[in-house]
Each structure stands twice: as C-alpha cells, then as structure tokens.
Amino acid sequence: MLNKDDTLLNELLSDDNLKIAKQRIKKNKGASGIDGMEVKELDEYLSKHLDEIKEQIRNKKYSPKPVKRVEIPKPDGSVRNLGVPTVVDRFVQQAIAQVLTPIYEPKFSESSYGFRPNRCCEMAILKALEFMNDGYQWVVDIDLEKFFDNVNHDKMISLIMKDVKCGEIVSLINKFLKSGIMIDDEYKESVIGTPQGGNLSPLLSNIMLNQLDKELEARGLRFTRYADDCIILVGSSKAADRVMKNVSIFIESKLGLKVNMTKSKVSKPNDIKYLGFGFFMDKNDGLWKAKPHAKSVEKLKLKLKKLTSRRWSISLDERLEKIKKTIVGWTNYYKIGYWKDVARMVDAHVRFRLRMCIWKQWKKVNTKKKALISLGVPKREAWMLANSRKAYARCASSFLNNVLTNKRLKERGLVFLLDQYDLKHC
What is the pLDDT at residue 5? Predict the structure, then answer.
C-alpha cells in the first residue's frame, strides 16, 4: 500500500500531470533561460530526457539551473527584478504547482485573489468597493518592500513541511529556492527570495502571505489581497493608524518581511492606487466607484503614443492590429471602472496621431494626390493639398480631419476605446 509521500510523488510524476504541465508551458511561451532553450524545443527534449528527469526527482538528484536575471523598469525609475528559469525548470515547477494547489486552495483566505483558480483582480476591486460602501472608508495601504526578493527560505520551507509530507517534493522546492541567479554571466547565490517569474513563485507567495491573511481575519479586519498588494479597510482614522502600526510589526517580526514605510500610508479611498485602479465617490448616488488610476491612463497613452509614432516603419495593418490588441486588453482589465471621458480623450489623440502616420506613409506628392482623390477630394483641391508644406500636425488637425474621418478610420480597422467602453457598460 502506498503511503502519503508516495501518492503525492506519483501524482507529480504521473503522465497526466506532466502532460498538462507541458501544455501550459507551451501555451504561456516566455523567454529562454540561461541555457538558451526555447519553448518550441521542449517537446523534443522531453521525448529524450523525461524518464531521466523523473528518475532524478525520485532520487532527489534533480538540479535546477540558476535563473536569468531580467530587470523591468518601473515608472518611478526603479526596476523590478524578474528571474527567468530555463524551460525545463519551468516545466518541473508547473508540475509541482499543479499537485500542491489542491492542497492549499482550501486553506487560503476568501480575501486572497491573486494567482488562484477562478479569481482575478476584478474580484478584489469589487470586494474593496463593497467594504467602502459599507462605511469602511479609511484605507490602510501597506507596501511590502521587494516582497519576492525578501522571502526567508527557511521560513518558507517550514511552512510547506506543515502540509506537504513528501520529502522529494519539499527537497525539490528547496533546490529551486536556492538555485541561484545569473547576472550578466556572473553567478550569484540566492540566499533569500523567490524569483518573480517562476511558475512556482505565485503559489509560494500565497503560502507565505496566507499567514498575514489569517492574522487579519483573527483581528476581524476587512481586507483584500492580490499577491503582495494588500489594503485593509476600517471605519476611522484612529483605527487605521492603529492597524497600520500593529500589522506592520506583525509582518516584520513574524513573517520576516520588510514594510516600505515611505510608500505605505493611511488615507481615504480617493487617494490610493490599488491594482491600477483609483476610486471616487459618485455625487449622484453617494457610492464609491472604481476608475483607472491617472498613472494607468498615462501608461496607456504612452504605449499608444509609441504605436502611433511616425518614425516607426510599419504597415498600417500591423499598426492597427497592435493598437487593437492594446485597447482591447486595457478595456478587459478596466471594464468594471468608469472612464468614458478618458476614452473620448484617448480616442481623439490616437486618431490625430494616426492621421499624421498615414500622411507620412503616403510620402510622395502623386501618392497623396491619388489617395485624396480616392477619398472623394476633387482633383484640383487634391493636387493643392498634396503639395502642402504644412507640418504633419497641422495637416492632421485640418483637412485630413475631414478626409480621414472617424468613420473611415473605423472602417479601415481602428478600434475606438469609447466603443469598447460602451460594449462593456451596455
């Protein structure tokens, strides 16, 4: 008869579990690790080495490779450190996550929404609004300083051993935590932290921060957490100050994590940014509602500005497709928010810049003339306009505005943010 250890290990190494793990790695794609192997090479590699990998895991001899350090710039000028494991290591991590998730899901808090099945940012925002509109209008916004870089390995493994009784799996997770980091071909030992970017990291972060969730629940506090982004909602300024102090002490003394006191604050909902959203009180019904934060809107405008750059040599079809993906993706994320005025403003700016792009792409006088005539401009006027020496911006805001109308741009394939807003709010 199999003991519990053997059952979980066999589940990890089962054909079904490994097949699903491989499919998810291929679907998610992603960059190569330090060995340079691409996701498309995984099938061929596993056809030759899968049995060897399984045997190494059974005998605690599997050795993960160091992760590749990638720095992602943040708006404030700092960087977010990502660790990119090799494709094979991602495959093994995914297989582990699949067997551990059913063990931990029942243990996780209802107020935790990040990296969990059938949960998303939208649910966290809606729950926060529910608390706000129930009268809990003071927000304790606690910022964990570089959470993924500061997780204590020993504490992490101790937590896992409480629920996972399979020594091979615990040993494997420990090896992934301590596999090291390659920074510009230089190896660095990973003494603390769980690299943000691995398939196992989201689950490990929830296991660690579940202790915080349980502490907040024990104190009877209302909160929502998405990964390391957590806000606590209370009824008064005095209570908020007290919670900020006590919870910060718990996080640093019990979890061994750092609270960034320069970014953590107590405030009203309209003064915070949470998961890209801001909040406002609707004067018509007196209820708190969500909208994209001003910084989120600026990020969208910057991305669209790059996509409509005249200096970027790209076909109009490709440009329109990239604009579409950006707008639809942004809309899907912020669909529960209110941003109709933002949509009008962004649409107008995109159309203006796109008209400049088209005018530049026509380039030659004869090409401009023929294009204008095909759009209904009389020949004589088309010739005069084609020879115009006005700047791109002047042309786009004057006669091109009447020729390349909003309707024509839409028919050509330009997706309007306002139309997407109306679809989501109809």
Answer: 64
Helical spans, DSSP H, in 219-315: 237-254, 294-307
At 129, which helix (H) or strand (E)? helix 121-133
Reported as a single tens digit per residue, the pLDDT across 77-87 is 677 778 899 99
| Residue 270 burial (CB count, 10 A) | 13
pLDDT of the residue at 1: 33
CA 4 to CA 333: how far, in whole Å? 41
Interatomic CA distance for residues 389 and 421, integer angstroms = 38
CA dihedral 271, 274, 276, 279 (to 10 degrees): -50
Q: What is the pLDDT of residue 88?
A: 97
51: tokens are 């049995």
Q: In 136-293, which ranges are E strands? A: 138-143, 181-183, 186-188, 222-226, 229-234, 265-267, 277-281, 288-292
CB 115 within 8 A of CB 183: no
3-state secondary structure of 72: strand
Phi, psi of 66 (to 5 degrees): -60, 150
3-state secondary structure of 292: strand
**Coil, helix or strand at residue 278:** strand
Residue of 36, 28, 26, 49 lying closest to 182 (CA atoms): 36
Sign of the CA dihedral running 232, 237, 239, 241: positive
Both tokens of residue 354?
Answer: 């796109």
For residue 83, what pLDDT is reported? 85
Question: Half-sphere exposure of 117 toward its Cβ, with a 13 Å CA cutoff?
Answer: 9
Contact 113, 124 (CB under 8 A): yes
Q: How many residues does the chain have?
A: 426
Ranges under pLDDT 50 in the chain: 1-3
Which tokens is 297 given? 């809107």
CA-wise closest residue to 75 among 256, 228, 233, 276 = 276
Global pTM reads 0.90
Closest CA to 87 of 140, 42, 54, 50: 42
Q: Return d(Cα 321, Cα 241) in angstroms, integer.
A: 48
**Which is it for strands 229-234 and 222-226: parallel, antiparallel or unpaired?**
antiparallel
Which residue carries 């099945």 as its tokens? 117
